[in-house]
């Protein structure tokens, strides 16, 4: 990729996975490591962008220490939403690479929930906002490019892309990087493959290899959009 095709651009990348507290010691969470988001932030910085990395529960050892990357740590979906929208107000690009919890406990107790002889109490859930869909609908800044990620498993018909297309249309993001996940791909430190769709579900790019190579494929598609908008 061009060395500085994001020079002068401001980008926001969310990474990691949100945690929704149940009580002071327990949470609902997911297994997202944050590596893809971290590699997106590093690739953007390498290509000249100024980056805000909104890191949801990313291990300290993974969080980059880079002069062009400002890190904002968050835990819950509502915190992630505030941080992304705050930084996103002035950003040319927002990439939602974080795994966001769809639900959160309706109440969080201030004391640790105890075992009782009557057995476990049910945990009531409420729905979290869809941050990506909100960003796509609200357009915090004119001309902003909004990018989502979707991890899809092939089903009986194996059609990962059909699910991706449906999601691209439903979310309204400018670009959606669709990632096939399964037993041996997608999570942790393993090779990755993405197909990049536009809001109509048309294929506009592909990336495979390391998460860093996938990150560059995403930025290639973003840079092409930004160029098209300014010419
Ligand atoms: O619907 P699904 O969770 O598969 O969509 C994934 C994409 O949507 C990711 O970009 C993720 O960051 C974003 N998302 C979000 N808010 C949610 C759920 C997902 O921004 N509540």
UniProtKB/TrEMBL annotation:
<protein>
    <recommendedName>
        <fullName>Coenzyme A biosynthesis bifunctional protein CoaBC</fullName>
        <ecNumber>4.1.1.36</ecNumber>
        <ecNumber>6.3.2.5</ecNumber>
    </recommendedName>
</protein>
<feature type="region of interest" description="Phosphopantothenate--cysteine ligase">
    <location>
        <begin position="11"/>
        <end position="231"/>
    </location>
</feature>
<comment type="pathway">
    <text>Cofactor biosynthesis; coenzyme A biosynthesis; CoA from (R)-pantothenate: step 2/5.</text>
</comment>
<feature type="binding site">
    <location>
        <position position="171"/>
    </location>
    <ligand>
        <name>CTP</name>
    </ligand>
</feature>
<comment type="similarity">
    <text>In the N-terminal section; belongs to the HFCD (homo-oligomeric flavin containing Cys decarboxylase) superfamily.</text>
</comment>
<comment type="similarity">
    <text>In the C-terminal section; belongs to the PPC synthetase family.</text>
</comment>
<keyword id="KW-0288">FMN</keyword>
<keyword id="KW-0285">Flavoprotein</keyword>
<keyword id="KW-0479">Metal-binding</keyword>
<keyword id="KW-0460">Magnesium</keyword>
<keyword id="KW-0436">Ligase</keyword>
<feature type="binding site">
    <location>
        <begin position="129"/>
        <end position="132"/>
    </location>
    <ligand>
        <name>CTP</name>
    </ligand>
</feature>
<feature type="binding site">
    <location>
        <position position="149"/>
    </location>
    <ligand>
        <name>CTP</name>
    </ligand>
</feature>
<feature type="domain" description="DNA/pantothenate metabolism flavoprotein C-terminal">
    <location>
        <begin position="6"/>
        <end position="224"/>
    </location>
</feature>
<feature type="binding site">
    <location>
        <position position="112"/>
    </location>
    <ligand>
        <name>CTP</name>
    </ligand>
</feature>
<feature type="binding site">
    <location>
        <position position="102"/>
    </location>
    <ligand>
        <name>CTP</name>
    </ligand>
</feature>
<keyword id="KW-0456">Lyase</keyword>
<comment type="function">
    <text>Catalyzes two sequential steps in the biosynthesis of coenzyme A. In the first step cysteine is conjugated to 4'-phosphopantothenate to form 4-phosphopantothenoylcysteine. In the second step the latter compound is decarboxylated to form 4'-phosphopantotheine.</text>
</comment>
<comment type="function">
    <text>Catalyzes two steps in the biosynthesis of coenzyme A. In the first step cysteine is conjugated to 4'-phosphopantothenate to form 4-phosphopantothenoylcysteine, in the latter compound is decarboxylated to form 4'-phosphopantotheine.</text>
</comment>
<comment type="pathway">
    <text>Cofactor biosynthesis; coenzyme A biosynthesis; CoA from (R)-pantothenate: step 3/5.</text>
</comment>
<keyword id="KW-0210">Decarboxylase</keyword>
<dbReference type="GO" id="GO:0016874">
    <property type="term" value="F:ligase activity"/>
</dbReference>
<feature type="binding site">
    <location>
        <position position="167"/>
    </location>
    <ligand>
        <name>CTP</name>
    </ligand>
</feature>
<keyword id="KW-0511">Multifunctional enzyme</keyword>
